[in-house]
Amino acid sequence: MTERQKPPPPSHTGRSNVPPIVSNAESDALPEFEAFMLLPRGPPNLKDFLEVIDVDMMKKPDENNRQEHHTNLYDSNHLIIRRGKPFQIKITFNRTYKPEKDQFWLEFLIGRYPQVSKGTYIPIMPEQEQEQGKWRSTLLKNENNSVTLSLCPNADCIVGKFRMYVAVMTPYGIRRTPRAPERDVYIIFNPWAEDDSVFLSDEEERKEYVLNEYGTIYYGEASNVECRPWNFGQFEYGVLDACLYVMDRAQMPLIGRSDPIKVCRLASAMVNAKDDDGILVGNWSGDYTYGVAPTAWTGSVEILVNYASSRNPVCYGQCWVFAAVFNTFLRCLGIPARVVTNFFSAHDNNGNLKVDVILDDEGKINTYLTKDSIWNYHCWNECWMTRPDLPAGFGGWQVVDATPQETSDGLYRCGPASVQAIKHGQVCFPYDAPFVYAEINSDVVYWKRNKDGTQEAIKVNKQHVGQMVLTKEVGRDAQKNITDLYKFKEGSEEERLSVETALTYGLNRQTVHMEGNDVDMEVRLQDAILIGSDFKLNLEFRNRSRERRTMSIYVNGNIVIYTGVTSKEFKSQTLKVSLEAQHTRVVDVSIQSKDYINHLVEQAMLHFIITGRVNETTQILTEQKVISFQIPKLTVKTTGMPRVNEEMSVTVEFKNPLQKNLENVSLRLEGPGLMKTKVKMYSLIPPNTPLTWTEYFAPSKPGRRKLIACLDSEALRQVYGETEVNVMV
C-alpha cells in the first residue's frame, strides 16, 4: 500500500484572479519594451527618442537622501528612505529632456501582480501634485542631459523594498530601464513626519527610541534591580532584510504593511516560534544543549541574521531576549520602541485579578494547590503610534509582548494594547488589554485551607504585583520609572475608579473579608548579597495587642527560576517565637552558601515563603521575599587609537568567584560598527582563577560605540561587561 500523498496547498482559483500577495521578495519583472501595436519584423528604430543612460539614486550614506531621512547609519548599499518625506533622484538621458515633446515617468513596484489600487504599483510623472494615496513629484532641475526629481511617498505608503523603473513613451510603445536590483528602494516608517501614524514630536526621544543601537534591560528583583547591556544593532548589515523576511514568512499581505498596528501585532507572534516557526524558540527548562542559553546572548543581530539565512527558528530565548529582538525589529522599520520591565508580574490568573496562595491550617504553603505564578520580573515592549481604531486619547505608547504566554486570536501574541487605556481600566479595547491589566494590578490572596476542605482568606497584598515598571532613560544609561503610566497610586480615588471600570468590562476581582489581626511580620534583608556568600534573613515581629503572643513560624526557601517556578527546596526550618505585649522583636535566620550554591539555576534567585500561626488567636502570618544575588561583572578594556579602519584590541577579564569549577563556559563579545559577534569556549575555569581574552578589531563606523561582553555557564549566568569607544574618522 503506497503512502498517502500530502494534499496540495489550497488554491486561489475560483476565489480571485491572482493569489494573495504576501511576499516582498517575490516579483514580476516588467518588459523593457511594451509594444502598443503589432510591429514589423525586427526591432523598431528608437534612436530618435529619449533614452535613459543612467539613474543616480543618490544613495550613499553621506549624500542628502540618507542624511535627511536619518538612514545614513544603515549598513546597506541601497537607498533607504522614510515615507512622507521627499527624496531626490537624478536621471541622465541621451539628450536634453524636452517637456513639450518627451514623456517619461517613474514606476515603483512591490511584490507580484502590482496594482495601483492596492498601492503596490506607483507610477509617478515628473510634475505630480500630492493626492490621497499618491506620491508627489517635482522637477527640480533640467540641464544638459540630466533631470533631478524630488519624490515624496505618501505618509501611509506600504513599508518594504520597492523595485524602480524609468519608463519613456515612444510612438511604438513604452521603453523601460532593465531590472536593476541596485536601484531597489527601501521605504520604512517615519516618526519625523507629522502625517505618519508613528510620528513622535520630541527629537531626543526619536534619537533614543529609533536611532539608538544600544539599550539597557533591567532584571532581578524590585529591591535589587540589575541591568544588562544589549546591542539592538538595527542598522547592521542584513537586519533590515531579515525584518522584511519575518513579514514574508508570516505571509502578511503587502497591503497591510502600511499599518503599524497590524505590523506590531503580527511581529508579536512571529518573534516567538511557538506556533508559526517564528524567530526564537522559548526555553525555560535549563537544558540548552541544542542551542545558545538565553542568558548568553549579547545582541539581536546574530539572532535575526541567523533566522533569515537558515529559515529556521533560533534556539533559545526568554522574555528579555524576545523583547530585545522585537525592539530591534520595530526600530529597524522606523517604529519608536523601548523595552520595559515589570517587577512581580502576575501570570495565568484567568482574568480574576488575583493570585491565590494556599496554606494549610498550620500555616505551611500547600504547593499542590498553589498553581498561580508571579514572575519576579517580565520584559515586554512599548511602541509609539496613533490608534485610529480606538477613541481619542488612547494613542501613544502601546504594549506589545512577544513572550509566548497565552494565545490571542489563536496565536501566541499580545498587543498592541494602549498604556493609557490600561491605566484607566478601559480594558474593552483591542488588543489583549485585560491580560496586561492583570499583570500589573492583581492582588495576592493568601488562603487558609481547613481540614474539611473549606478556605478562608487570611491576607490580601494589593501592592506586591506590578511594584515597579522600568525602562531606560532618554539619552543616558539610567533607570526611568514609568509605573505611573500604567497605574494610579494604590488606594487613591483614581485607582478605585480604574479598577471599577475594568470590572465593568468583564474582569473579576473577588472581595475578600478578613477579621482584624494584632501581630505583624516583616522580612528584611541586608544590602546586595554576592553570589556564594552566607547571609541572614531578618524577621521582624510586632505585637500590637495588650497580651503576650507565641507563634510557630515556618521558613521555606526555594531555588526558583525568574518566572516564579520552583526548582528545588533547599531550606526548611521551624521557629518558636514569643512576643511580649506591645513589643517588637527581630529574629535572624542564617542562610549558608553550601545549602544553595550547588542547586542554583538560571539567574541565581532564591524565594523565601515565611508563614506561621499565632497560637492564642489562630491568626495566620505570611510574607514572601525574593533574593537576586549580585553577580560579578566582566572587565572590558580597549587598547589603541579608536579610528575607522585602524586596528585596535579589546581585552576581557574575569575571575571565578565560586568555590567550584565553571564548566563549558562561553564568552561572547560584540559591538555594532566595531566588530561582529565572536565566541570563545572554555572547558574549565577552576575556583578563584582569572581569565583573560584579547581580540583585535578595526572599527568600521565613527561615533560613540560600545563593546558588550557576556560570560555564561550552567553554574553562573548573567555575567556582563561593557566599555564605550569613541571612534574618530
UniProtKB/TrEMBL annotation:
Q: Which residues form the active site?
A: 319, 378, 401
One of this protein's Pfam families, by short name? Transglut_core
Q: What is the catalytic activity of this protein?
A: L-glutaminyl-[protein] + L-lysyl-[protein] = [protein]-L-lysyl-N(6)-5-L-glutamyl-[protein] + NH4(+)
Q: What EC class does the entry list?
A: transferase
Q: Name one GO molecular function term.
A: protein-glutamine gamma-glutamyltransferase activity
Q: What is the lineage of its organism?
A: Eukaryota, Metazoa, Chordata, Craniata, Vertebrata
Q: Which residues form the Transglutaminase-like domain?
A: 311-404
Instruction: Give me the segments passing through the membrane.
Output: none
Residues bound to Ca(2+): 441, 443, 490, 495
Cofactor comment text: Binds 1 Ca(2+) ion per subunit.
Superkingdom classification of source: Eukaryota
Q: Does the keyword Electron transport apply?
A: no
One of its GO biological process terms is:
blood coagulation, fibrin clot formation
Can you name this protein? protein-glutamine gamma-glutamyltransferase
* Enzyme Commission identifier(s): 2.3.2.13
Q: Key word Metal-binding present in the record?
A: yes
User: Where in this protein does the record put region Disordered?
Assistant: 1-23
Q: Which family does it belong to?
A: Belongs to the transglutaminase superfamily. Transglutaminase family.
InterPro entries from the entry?
Ig-like_fold, Ig_E-set, Papain-like_cys_pep_sf, Transglutaminase, Transglutaminase-like, Transglutaminase-like_sf, Transglutaminase_animal, Transglutaminase_AS
